[in-house]
Design goal:
By secondary structure, the chain is of the alpha/beta class. The chain folds into two domains: 304 residues, ABC transporter type 1, transmembrane domain (ABC transporter transmembrane region fold); 165 residues, P-loop containing nucleotide triphosphate hydrolases (Rossmann fold). It is built from 18 helices and twelve strands. The strands form three sheets. A six-stranded mixed sheet has the order 6-9-10-3-11-12, with helices on both faces. A four-stranded antiparallel sheet has the order 2-1-4-5. Helix 2 runs antiparallel to helix 3 and helix 7 crosses helix 13. The longest helix is centred in the middle third of the chain and has 49 residues. It is elongated and about 110 Å long.
């Protein structure tokens, strides 16, 4: 199991320390049964055995020390493994491109970074208890083999059957939990739509009814998958517990008739072994399934987000000091197919954006405007063709260092990452120019509030773009959420000021009354330039 590899793997743990702890547990558990059995026999016969009392004290001390050490080591190892796994997933996410993250699903990435680590860490006490039970089993079997090899062979055979059944049942349980996890991801999307689309659902009874039907269908499917996994776990637990308890009874009632020479201490040791296993590993293994599924989710997502081929170390590329000619030469981009439907195809597009100019990108929905913005921002990698800055073809990473972009749904960080030395007076002056100084301020290296309307968030994103001061600015429907006065200010004052400063502006817009503010209009339709 992957969760065991994280907790006890040599790359995570001090192997010698785990070995010492395990040896102490095996010793304490292995000799516990014989010492107690002989102690009872001695007390019944009136014989004083201080050596047995001393042995029981040693065994108890070893058990307490090893038990505490086991919990501490397992917890520390799992925390370290989860921290490293989360760090690798964060690194893979930041190295990935936008298209890959979109295919993986932002909600899935977020769940793998937040919920999955919690599920893994929650298995620490179960693993510690399972490790103790495993050491108990091994230690007792060793003692049993030294006392009666025939009985040892019988017990070992029963254990092989029990754990083979566990392995077979575990695969079925994991398959059901994996299916339930996929359905749960869909449920999260539905619940997110329920909250964010509340107004739209309340406005339309038919939409609300169909939405609820789909939500209930997915919920019922998820409950069915989880119920199947629980049934398999329950059936496995009952069968395995029954088998081990039956084996305990066999040690007491059957073996004495078949092997009359076996010492009663040996029989009691075997019976205690089987009864403890029935409530030890058999109980804990099904409970580890959720942590195992969480590790699988993190590993699959980590593989999906990592680009093919050998990873290259990130490089810091200095942006050009001034705007250069930005051009596309036969650029094409193909979205992946979904549900047997052909994905949207962009291009081929050949077009140039001269420096210190304003270009408006026009077109209807699904015409390719946003795809163009993501290609120009270096967030998508062209399938065919090249993007040039000046006379040189540039990679997406080089392009990203030359542009600032404000998309239709900008996310604003509360800190100016990369500009920690920004002058607070300058930043607050820009906030005042944008008319949002009363809603947020830049104090102690961070914005005091991000509780802003969509239009105000875009104004704050504009402030960040001005601080970046890159030679090319991409805008996707920036003015769509602004009030009429500020929209007028944007087209008549802000854009001309950027052009006068030598910056290139490429803006997606449908404000036809302001088309005269641009040096050029480019119309897209079905992924192609049509005018």
């Amino acid at each position: 199991m992957r969760v065991l590899r994280l907790a006890f793997g040599p790359e995570r743990a001090h192997v010698i320390g785990i070995g010492v702890v395990g040896g102490a547990l095996m010793m304490s558990f292995g000799f516990e049964g014989p010492i107690l059995a002989k102690g009872v026999a001695a007390a019944t016969s009136g014989i004083d055995r201080p050596d047995l009392a001393l042995g029981l004290i040693v065994v108890t001390v070893a058990y307490v020390w090893a038990g505490i050490s086991t919990v501490r080591r397992v917890t520390e190892n799992l925390l370290l493994a989860v921290m490293l796994g989360r760090r690798r997933l964060i690194d893979a996410t930041l190295r990935s491109d936008l298209a890959t993250v979109e295919r993986a699903g932002p909600e899935n990435v977020l769940a793998a970074l937040t919920a999955a680590p919690d599920d893994i860490i929650a298995t620490a006490p179960l693993l510690a208890r399972g490790f103790r039970t495993g050491c108990y089993m091994i230690g007792t079997l060793v003692v049993l083999a030294s006392l009666a090899w025939q009985l040892f062979a019988v017990m070992a055979g029963i254990l092989v059957i029990i754990f083979s059944t566990l392995a077979i049942n575990h695969r079925a349980v994991m398959g059901a939990l994996s299916e339930a996890g996929e359905l749960e991801a869909g449920m999260r999307e539905d619940l997110r739509a329920l909250v964010l689309g509340f107004k739209e659902l309340r406005l339309n009874a038919a939409r609300r009814r169909l939405f609820l039907t789909g939500l209930h269908t997915r919920a019922n499917a998820m409950l069915a998958a989880v119920g199947y996994a629980n049934r398999r776990q329950t059936i496995g637990f009952v069968l395995q517990a029954s088998a081990t308890l039956a084996a305990s009874g066999m040690c007491i009632f059957v073996v004495p008739n078949v092997l009359p020479t076996v010492d009663p201490v040996t029989l009691i040791t075997a019976a205690v072994l089987m009864s403890n296993i029935s409530f030890g590993l058999v109980r804990d293994i099904p409970l580890l399934a959720r942590g195992e599924a969480a590790i699988g989710d993190m590993e699959r997502l980590n593989s999906a987000l990592r680009p093919p081929g050998k990873a290259q170390p990130p490089s810091v590329i200095a942006p050009p000091a001034e705007a250069l000619l930005l051009s596309l030469d036969g650029v094409c981009y193909q979205y992946p197919d979904e549900d047997d439907e052909r994905g949207f195809a962009f291009g081929p597009v050949t077009i140039a954006f001269p420096p210190a100019t304003i270009t408006f990108i026009l077109g209807g929905n699904s015409s390719g405007k946003t795809t163009l913005m993501k290609l120009l921002a270096g967030l998508y990698t062209p399938g065919l063709g090249d993007i040039h800055l000046g006379s040189d073809a540039v990679s997406p990473s080089e392009l990203r260092e030359s542009v600032s972009a404000i998309f239709a749904d900008p996310y604003i960080f509360d800190r100016l990452y990369g500009w920690s030395d920004a002058d607070p007076e300058m930043v607050n002056g820009l906030l005042a120019d944008m008319g949002i100084a009363g809603r947020t301020r830049f104090v102690d290296g961070r914005f005091t509030s991000l509780d802003l309307s969509t239009g105000q968030r875009k104004r704050l994103a504009w402030v960040v773009a001005m601080i970046e001061a890159r030679p090319i600015l991409l805008l996707d429907q920036w003015a769509a959420d602004q009030d009429p006065e500020f929209r007028e200010h944007f087209y008549r004052v802000m854009l001309p000021a950027l052009r006068a400063a030598g910056r290139t502006v490429i803006a997606v817009t449908n404000d036809d009354r302001y088309y005269d503010a641009a040096d050029r209009l480019i119309h897209f339709d079905d992924g192609m330039v049509v005018g």
